Each structure stands twice: as structure tokens, then as C-alpha cells.
Amino acid sequence: MKNKLVLLFLGCAVLGYAQKKPAKNTVKIKPKSEFVAELMSKMTLDEKLGQLNLPTSGDITTGQANSSNVAKNIAEGKVGGLFNIKSVQKIKEVQKIAVEKSRLKIPLLFGMDVIHGYETTFPIPLGLSCTWDMALIERSAQIAAKEASADGINWTFSPMVDISRDPRWGRVSEGSGEDPYLGSQIAKAMVNGYQQHDLSKNNSILACVKHFALYGAPEAGRDYNTVDMSHIRMFNDYFPPYKAAVDAGVGSVMASFNEVDGIPATGNKWLMTDVLRKQWGFKGFVVTDFTGIPEMIEHGMGNLQDVSALALNAGVEMDMVGEGFLGTLKKSLDEKRVSMETIDNAVKLILEAKYDLGLFQDPYKYCDEKRAKTEIFTIDSRKEARQIASQSLVLLKNQNQLLPLKKSGTIGLIGPLADAKENMPGTWSVATKMENAVSLLRGIKEVAGAGTKVLYAKGSNLDYDETFETNATMFGKTLHRDARSKEEMLAEALKVAEQSDVIVAALGESAEMSGESSSRTNLEIPQAQKDLLNALLKTGKPVVLVLFDGRPLVITDEEKTVPAILNAWFAGTEAGYAIADVLFGDVNPSGKLTSTFPRSVGQLPIYYAHKNTGRPLSNTEGKFEKFRSNYIDERNEPLFPFGFGLSYTTFDYSNLKISSDKMNSTGKLKVTVDVTNTGNFDGKETVQLYIRDLVGSVTRPVRELKGFQKIALKKGEKQTVSFDITVEDLKFYNSDLQFVAEPGQFDIFIGGNSNADKKVSFELTK
Predict the structure, then answer these.
(1) Helix, strand, or coil (residue 691)
(2) Band (70; pLDDT cuts 50, 70, 90)
(3) Rounded to an integer, what distance in angstroms lies between the CA atom of residue 188 and that of residue 241?
(4) For residue 159, is the peptide bond before it cis, meaning its omega torsion is within 30 degrees of 0?
(5) C-alpha distances in Å from residue 647, one per residue of 566, 587, 588
(6) Among 123, 116, 196, 119, which Cα is nearest to 159's?
(7) Are 293 and 307 in contact (CB under 8 A)?
(8) Is residue 225 part of a domain?
(9) How confident is the model at residue 103 (pLDDT cuts 50, 70, 90)?
(10) CA–CA–CA angle 176, 179, 182 (5° rounding)
(11) Residue 21's pLDDT is what?
(12) Residues 6 or more apart in contact with residue 186 via CB below 8 angstroms
């Protein structure tokens, strides 16, 4: 349809659409509350229940929308939104059915898992978090919203802000790590990036914070599994990022699959109503996760009618795929198991979201074919993605300054992830065109230039087990399994190594070894790759390990034997260029870990902000002590702590000062520290501030992140970094779930990671 259709109200009369789009800014519709109330007064019960229904579109081919299975329901007003459909052409066809063929012409929402970019793909969220740069993180979400909205999408199921302290759980790749303070800052940045404080813009989209709540703490690290924790831990450690997203104005919330206090989150009224709405003041709507309502049947909560009523009464407004609302709520209303008031409230929230997005003014707002051609996967967006990706990489080891590499001589690039462009975008990159991603091989060749010879060998498959590799390379993330014997592949790799001055080993996980339903019990690099790496080390040539992963891995052996380790995560469509930029020193690495790397899987869950026991170790060397809290076969501390990350330069912390050793409840303290770049490269450092509450009415963590600043220093430059401390930084939830700061002694630590040893102390007085 050439001209956009515009909804007009003529007094209080019938809803209808004009055939010609008026001049800009001349369309007037009633204020939101009045508009929605009037529209709802015209709706039948079936049409109201339809607004609560979010089916998947299936694969609708352009030109065939009218004959698709979902078209009939849309025309009958039985669909509130669709997801898993992309492109302006397809979305416009489907929207046309809603606004021309349905009785009340209510436009649809179109949602998609735009998790870490659209076609321009950024690092997986865990990698993004390691930038510790809120402006860059917000910018990544803004670009994602721009591209998605240009392709017809107006709703994203992101950000995922679940705190997780157990990397056996594969979805750590989608989150921002283990810390509630940092996670809260990132949640806010992502929401602001997607929504841009103004949903009326045509390049902003509705965000959806997920998964509410506690999804990142399943027993045994197994996806969808039981979660059970105290309320005090919920409020102090796991709830803050969700609340930060709500405070930032997130438009929607997604329920989690797990149970909370023995009731699945999708049917948990305490969670969805008491906490989310009454305590936090959330004004948007709640959507289930995929089939979240019927899955409560397996949880043992009743039949489809039972669980559908349970979810609606709990405070869930939209049913993703389950169709329990559509099929059972009418009967439940007749039986007085749900009320009309509850249904009406749910419908109102969905319609208000559509109003805020401007869909009633212009249902084709996101269907501009010019934007689709000019604003997706642009040169400028790719340039920004490359820059952001380079900031996400974490240098874990650099013995004898092996890195950065020289742009000369011969480099042997070896490993199953070396020429694997399809894996570079990482998990949950559903809109990415894999053919556009840049492999490490291509990146190194182009960044190194003609003066450097680059030799390549695959060296091994992902794993010796072909079935395992098949399961770990789904959704087009193939590694093109090599049919040769392991001996043949190794011989080729060693031949390349012999001819090389330095070896870059591209090893680790494939993209789908982490992500949803990709839990692992063994967090080591697969044995086939470990054997390859050991053979390369035996050549005596210097080896740089470029480690691909979607979670913290157990690399205790590699840390002992490999001279240099660069953790690359999965850095997006521009990964190959970004990694090469860091390897050759065009970018000095500045990423810092947001999730602890364990020494052994047996330490899990592991995190820096742990509590002390009554029997802590008395030594700092990790030596075993009987009748103390430790292991008989492993040290307590991790391999790499939270906040850790090296640079090609070095930073010295000195002259830590505090403005006073006392503060009252209305006061403020200033903490300053001098940071000096003492190395030979310009670089960036994330200065981290941790606080310990030494005595509390409940036990308190050994330290908690309460501030950070990422600064850039020229070599030899010194900068004084200052932090303000107020009583808000000292508050926590006590045993009565009151958010309080208790008078007493506090320690402040500042440094480059969570083991920071520069300390000052103060007292909070009454």
C-alpha cells in the first residue's frame, strides 16, 4: 500500500483510517488514557483476549501473508503481536491484515530477540560487559534499535540482566556477569539505548528486561532448573539489575522459566504484583517466555486452564505461544476464576504500549523501505562495532610482552576457530547474516598487511566426538568438520608451526557451546584442542592463545603453559578485525572480567562478593588447613578474579586518600587515588572501588563493587581519580527486607580488580 494509513477519531464516533497520510504533525489523537478507554469500550471479550496473545509467525514468505496460518486469527482480532518475523515487506503485509481486515484495526507489535545487535552484531552481552564502558554499551543498543526498527521490528526481548555466578549455566553468555552493581548500570544503559527515552521516535524500540526473576541461579547450572534462595539474597544480589531496568523506564518485562519460592515465576503473584508493581512501581506489561504458561503444567501447577488463570491473576499480561489465555480465559471468566477487571487491566497495558510506540498514529511507522535499505549493516555501524568489540577483549596473560605482535615475519594461525566466521557473532545472533561476519584469519591478514606472511592450518576439529560437535554448532554455526584423521590434521598444523615465527592458536568453544540449553559439566577446552595446543607448545615456538568462549572456562593448565592468552569471547560480525587490532597493538586491550574464572569446576558457584565463614583460611598461600573452610585438592581463590584484565602497559595506584574518617547519614566522603601509566604504551584502565561493611545486623560480603571509572592515560601520565561516597552506597536489605545503612566501620579498597589492596577506612555515625 503506497500511502501510510492513519488512524483518526471523529469525535467519539467510529474508529477508521484515512486513505491519505496528512501533512506531518497534523494528526491528532486523544490522550492515552482517554484513547485506550474508548477503544476498549468497543472491544468484545474475544478481541480483548486476542490482544494478550503473542504467537510466533512461522516462516511467512513475502507475498503469502494472507494465506498463512496466523492471518485468520489476526483478521479476527485474536493476535496482539507476532515475533520471529523480519523485513519491512513481510511485516507490512501482516500489519496490513491487522489494520485493514480486523474489525477494530488495532496494530500489532512485532518482537524479535535482538540481543546484541541486529545485522551489525556486537560482542555477546558477557563480552560487552567487559568493556566497563556504559556509553559504548548504550551505543550498541542504540544501533541495534536503529537497525531493527528500520527492518520493521518495534520490540526486543532484551536486555537479559540475570545475575549468574555459575558458568556451567550456558546463558551466562547473554548476561553481564556476577555483580549486581555493575549489572544494574548495564541494565540502565541497555534500556536507554533501545528506548532512547522516547518511544515515539521511529528508531527507538520497546525494551523487555528478562528473565524475571532469578533465572541465572539454577541448581547444578542446568538450564530451566529449580531455583531456591532466601529473600535477603534475592533483594541484595539478584534483584538490583531488574529494578534498575524498571527505574530506567523499561516498557516490558519477561517472566522466567524457573520457580521462585516453589511457584513458577510465570504464575507467581508475589513476584509479578507485590514486588514488580507495588514495590518498584512498574507501569508496563509482562510477557511470558516461550510457552511459559503451558510449561507450568509440567511443574505440577494444574492443567492449561489452571495455569492460564494462575498467570493472569499473578500479573502476566501477554502469553507467548502458549495460547492458554486465548483458549481458556473465557471459560475461567464464566467460572469466576478470573475477573473482567483483571483482563481489562492486561489489555489496557498492551494497548498503552502500542500507543506509546506511535502505532495508532501510524501503524506502518516501522515499515519505511528507504530506511531498510540505508540504515542496516552500514559502514559506520560496522566501524563502531569493531571499536566496541576491541574494547571487550580481556588480556589474561602476556609473559615477556609477547604481545603485541609485529606486522612482519611469518605468523602461523592454527585452530578450529581460526577460519570460522559463522561462529564469530556468537549465540543468539538471530538476525545476523553469517556470511557478513569476519573470521580471525581474514582479520589478521588484512590488519597485518602485505609485509606479514600468514599461514593457516585447522589443526583439529572442535572435539573428537562428532555428535558433540553437531550439538555445539547448531543454527548455521558450522565449523565445517574436517573428515581427515587427527594425525593428518596435526601434521599439517606442525608443518605450519615449523615455518612460523609465532603461533596464534584459535581455540575454545564454538558459538553454540554456550547460550540457551547449553549447560556444561566440563568447562575445559575440548580434549582435541588441548592435544593440539600441547603439540604446538612442544615446538618451542612462542604461542598466543586466542580463546573463544561464551562463559568463564577452566584454563588452569593453559595458564601455566601458554605465554600469552587473549580472551576474545564472541566479538560479533567484526570480530576478526577487532581481535587483530588488539593482537597487533593498534588497540591496547582494556577489557576487565565481569565473571570470575574458576580453577576447577568443583569450585562453582564462585564469585568475589562471597561471605566469610566462621572458619576462614588463616593463610594467603592457599595451603590446606584441616577444620577450615577450604578444599583438600584445590585452592579457594579463582584463577582470574572479577575485574581482572591486563594491558600492554602497566598502571600504578598510589596516594589513596579519604576526605574524612567519619560520615553521618546526610554527609558525603570523597575518596581519591592517583593512577599512573608506568609502561610504554598509551592505555585505558578501569579504576574499581569496593566497600566492606565490617559489622552488620546480618552477615555482609567480604567486599562489594560500589563505583568504577574507565580512564585513558598516555604513557607516563598520572591522573587523580575521585569517587564520592554517600549513605546510599552503604545500604543493603536487612533480615526484615528494609533497605538500610547501619552505623559502624567500613573499609574502602581501590585498584584494578576485585583483589585491590589499597585501603582506607571510615566510620558511619548515627
Answers:
(1) strand
(2) confident
(3) 8
(4) yes
(5) 11, 10, 6
(6) 116
(7) yes
(8) no
(9) very high
(10) 70
(11) 40
(12) 128, 129, 134, 137, 159, 161, 176, 241
DSSP per-residue string spanning 331-348: HHHHTTSS-HHHHHHHHH
Residues 576 and 679 in one domain: no
Give 60's pLDDT tier (boundaries 50, 70, 90). low
Percent of the chain with pLDDT over 90: 94
Confirm if 287 and 311 have CB atoms less than 8 A apart: no
pLDDT score of 27:
57
Which cell is 145 given?
534499535
* Residues 419, 501 within the same domain: yes
- Name the 3-class secondary structure at 409: strand
One domain, residues 435 and 539:
yes
Q: Grid cell 545487535 — which residue?
A: 117
Query: CA-to-CA distance for 527 and 501, rounded, in angstroms?
Result: 26
Asked about 261 being catalytic, the answer comes back as no
470 lies in the same domain as 581: yes
Q: With beta carbons less than 8 A apart as the criterion, state whether 551 and 164 touch.
A: no
Decide: 611 and 694 in contact? Cβ < 8 Å.
no
Indicate whether 668 and 581 sit together in one domain: no
Question: Amino acid identity of 701?
Answer: P
Query: What's the pLDDT at 513?
Result: 98
Omega prior to 241 cis, within 30 of 0: no
Residue 710 sits in a domain of what CATH number?
2.60.40.10
Going by the DSSP 8-state scheme, the letter that residue 512 receives in this structure is: G
End residue of a domain, out of 592, 608, 639: 592
Residues 410 and 475 in one domain: yes
Q: What is the pLDDT of residue 139?
A: 98
DSSP letters spanning 127-164 = HHHTT--HHHHHHHHHHHHHHHHHTT--EE---B----
pLDDT at 608: 98
The catalytically annotated residue of 166, 289, 362, 549 is 289
> Which amino acid belongs to residue 724?
D
What average pLDDT does the structure give for the chain? 95
Which CATH number covers residue 391? 3.40.50.1700
**Structural domain total, the chain:** 2
Residue type, 138: E
Would the pLDDT of 64 be above 90? no
pLDDT at position 63 is 62
Q: Give residue-wise pLDDT tens across range 455-473.
A: 999 999 999 999 999 999 9
In degrees and rounded to multiples of 5, residue 108 shows phi and psi of -95, 155
Q: Are 164 and 171 in contact, with CB atoms under 8 Å apart?
A: yes
Tell me, yes or no, whether 436 lies in a domain: yes
Q: Secondary structure of 345-375 in the HEC alphabet?
A: HHHHHHHHHHHHCCCCCCCCCCCCHHHHHHC
**Which of 545, 569, 592 is at the close of a domain?**
592
Give the strand pairing for 6-8 and 208-212.
Answer: unpaired
Residue 12 has what pLDDT? Answer: 32
Q: pLDDT at position 28, please?
A: 79
**Displacement of CA 328 from its chain's centroid (Å):** 34
Q: Quick one: 545 and 667 in the same domain?
A: no
Same domain for 514 and 427: yes
At residue 745 the predicted structure's pLDDT band, cuts being 50, 70 and 90, is very high
CA distance 477 to 492: 24
| Confidence (pLDDT) at 16 | 36
User: How many Cα atoms are found within 13 Å in the side-chain-facing hemisphere of 242?
Assistant: 30
| Structural contact between residues 462 and 532, judged by C-beta atoms closer than 8 angstroms | no
Answer whether residue 116 is part of any domain.
Answer: no
What span, in angstroms and rounded, lies between the C-alpha atoms of 639 and 631?
15
Give yes or no for a contact between 539 and 501, defined as CB atoms under 8 angstroms apart: no
Per the domain annotation, does 529 fall within a domain? yes
Burial 32-61 (b: 16+ CB within 10 A, else e): eeebbeebbeebeeebbbbbbbbbebeebe
| Per-residue pLDDT, 78 | 96
pLDDT of residue 57: 80
Residue numbers of the domain that contains 718? 649-764
pLDDT band at 230 (very low <50, low <70, confident <90, very high): very high
